[in-house]
Write a structure and sequence with these properties.
The chain has 61 residues and is mainly beta. It has 1 helix and 5 strands; from the N terminus they run ββββαβ. A 3-stranded antiparallel β-sheet has the order 2-1-3, with no helix packed on it. Bound molecules: zinc ion. Residues 6, 8-9, 11, 18, 20-21, 23 line the site of zinc ion.
Length: 61
């Protein structure tokens, strides 16, 4: 089964709710994986509006 990502944050979620936005707005249709260690030091993270370290997808349907 494909991993699920939060549609709001693009973050990969293993539990029942997104740890960032506390919703369960998930999608299993996504592309690309991005690991963010330092959101403030990553241009890509800032571009995507990522504010917390973690594993993200680049695109989610
Ligand atoms: Zn979220």
């Amino acid at each position: 089964m494909a991993e699920k990502v939060c549609r709001n944050c693009k973050m990969f979620v293993t539990g029942t709710a997104c740890p960032l936005c506390r919703t369960a707005n998930f999608s299993r249709t996504w592309k690309g994986v991005l690991y963010v260690n330092d959101p403030n030091g990553s241009e890509v993270a800032q571009l995507l509006g990522i504010k917390a370290p973690g594993k993200y997808c680049l695109w989610v349907k």
